[in-house]
Specification:
alpha+beta, six-stranded mixed β-sheet
Length: 238
């Protein structure tokens, strides 16, 4: 009997130890969850600088509204072009982090039937702004931003209110990272038609190649011919 009791105590202690390792003690804290998982140093730093981590913790611990976080690894940030994050303004850094947060809890199974596009915290003020699209293939979940595509590679944490999923790429919103549209070429200038000269007047421009009026020349030639004939006739008579 003593051996059975001792065995039960061992099982209970093991269960308590396991729960303490998987569930953070005290209020939910997104940075503690990420720190415990490891390999999310850059995301944690951005969350703290932008104060998005405080927003997430406050919402989770003071309301019944769940949240979903897509967490890019340090390797995902390293694959970005050098200087990408530092080139962003403070507001854009906030929007980038918020773009990885959905304002409701979504389990892995719910991704199979969820409707696109998904609204993110970055577009909280304007519904449909900063949207994400999710596609599934079997158990694989892919996230598309319109700039890049990422894959959910692991479930870091889930408790029915908060879900944190590891993704292999930084989700880049189109409003920040999309290439600008090429400039539209100006429309060619339309040529104005030449104005017509008033009726009865001929153009006086020196560049006008139209034939000159020959009526005066013809009259002079006819007059000279008549004079010549008259002179010849007079000479014959004499």
């Amino acid at each position: 009997m003593k051996h059975q009791f001792f065995f039960i105590i061992i099982i209970l202690q093991f269960s308590i130890l396991t729960l303490s390792q998987t569930t953070p003690s005290g209020p939910t804290n997104i940075t503690q969850i990420l720190e415990k998982a490891g390999q999310f140093t850059t995301l944690i730093r951005l969350m703290k600088v932008s104060q998005v981590s405080d927003q997430i913790n406050t919402q989770l611990n003071n309301s019944n509204q769940g949240m979903t976080v897509f967490a890019p690894t340090d390797n995902a940030f390293s694959s970005l072009k050098s200087g990408t994050i530092n080139s962003l303004s403070a507001q854009q850094q906030v929007q980038l982090v918020q773009f990885h947060v959905l304002p409701n809890f979504i389990s892995m199974s719910q991704f199979q039937t969820i409707s696109n596009p998904l609204r993110t915290q970055a577009g909280d003020a304007t519904p449909g702004d900063f949207p994400l699209n999710v596609t599934t293939s079997g158990n694989q979940v892919n996230v598309s931003t319109g700039v890049d595509d990422a894959t959910v590679s692991n479930t870091i944490y889930t408790d029915g209110q908060l879900a944190v999923y590891q993704v292999d790429k930084v989700l880049q919103p189109m409003s920040i990272f999309a290439a600008p549209s090429p400039a539209v070429a100006p429309a060619p200038a339309t040529l104005k038609p030449k104005s017509k000269s008033p009726a009865g007047l001929s153009p006086t421009s020196g560049n006008d190649d139209s034939p000159a009026d020959s009526s005066g020349v013809e009259k002079i030639a006819m007059h000279g011919t008549a004079v010549l004939i008259f002179g010849i006739s007079l000479f014959v008579l004499l």
